[in-house]
Amino acid sequence: MVKAKKSKKSKPRKEAASNNGTVVYTPSSSHVSAVSGSYKGTKEDLDALDWLRNVENRRSQGEPVLQLEYQEDDVLMTTLQDFLETSAATHEVIDEIYQIWQQTVLSTLLASSALWKQETVQANDQRVLKDCLKTARYKINFALHHVLGAILTSPEPKWKRLQPYVIDVCWQTLALLPRLAESVPHHPTDLRSNILHFEGKEFLASVACETWDTLYDFDISLDPTRFVPILRKLAMLDILDKDWNMLGGWEDILKGLEAKCFHGSVLRLPCDSVLHEHTTLLRNARNSMQCKFFSVRFMRYTEDQAPQRWRYFPKCAAPACAHVETPESPHPHRCESCWYFHYCSPACQEYCDVVLGLHPKFCRDTPANKAASCQRETEAYLGWSDPQSGQPLVCHACGVVQEEVSGADSLVDAQYAIVSNGIPTSSMKRCSKCQKVYYCSRQCQEWDWRVGGHKRVCLFEAAQKQQQQIKELN
């Protein structure tokens, strides 16, 4: 919200020519110069919205004026105040603001797509794109949260009569996001397409957050029958909040909107409880990853603090991915050392292991007892073992039962009682592909694979699972 402008003496403006011939003026505290167009000695037509359309190119004393937080006397705040006072306040002005928002979103997505479709992508190209994404977020934040927010809360009659139309524009920004999300789908095998998916979804989530926060922070009264369905759809697509629901699950968001915007209870659908459970899972899993990051990078937690960083979560370990495994469709890629990292696709595994480098770093940081605990949680969730059943495991090749192998005291037999990183586990080793059968020794496993016929059954089931996962992802 823009506060009332304090009266100030106008200061002279100095003229300067930019490199491209555009005339730019050093702004005073109450005026802002045009970025494009000729200057004829008259005051800028703020209704033309050039000051907003080209705001990312503006500089004050050599520094960008676009940022996330502003003081009352900052260049953009005084320009916005002048706009509110002098604008004709027509529908065309609001439409133009929406067009600026739309062009910013589309051009940013196109720039990201163009980069990752290049034959080679240099580090400098990625830095440029990162700056582009940041600038676009700042611009959208200013256009929605500050400009539209100031219009929605303005007491002036000329703006108050347009408030329903501005709310309609906010709804249009949210309604466009699901269609934009379709342009950056998740890809199970192509790393570049997956990076584009993650970057695009994060950007669209920040756009959704700016619109939602504008209405939420200013207590704007909304029609729940119109806004709840689109918000529910955004939550389903995992693009409702730029921090991926770090404020809470779907039910928490719905209760907040009921209190501040809807002014009454909203009819719950059967899917709302499932959606709340799903968004809460995504939130907790990402919070767990954040705790791992802070622990390793800043040595922030001891082993007993932030226990969620050692827990198993069925969400794909790639931070931006929202795919959740089930006992019927477990993820095909899993680390059996730390048991924390598992992936829905090869592209997610490559992104997390190679591009971000998270798995190698965090896997080494996992204590043996924490890995064993995470393994038990994984197996219990996926139904690979039932700790309550008390039934011994049986070797799929020779038929020996678990107790007999556990009693072996020879070094040859004892080596199968540990996994590769020395974490104690059952003497039986499970097939890493199908996760359904167990073996008492490597000899039994190799024989059953080459001679016993398990290879044919295992590979057939693995291929069926992969095809099913690809269908679900698409």
Automatic annotation (TrEMBL):
InterPro entries: Znf_MYND. GO terms for molecular function: zinc ion binding. Residues 1-12 have a biased composition (Basic residues). Residues 395-458 form the MYND-type domain. Keywords: Metal-binding, Zinc, Zinc-finger. Pfam families: zf-MYND (PF01753). Residues 28-37 have a biased composition (Low complexity). Gene3D superfamilies: 6.10.140.2220. PROSITE patterns: ZF_MYND_2. Transmembrane segments: none annotated. Residues 1-37 are annotated as: Disordered. This is MYND-type domain-containing protein. It comes from Phaeodactylum tricornutum (strain CCAP 1055/1).
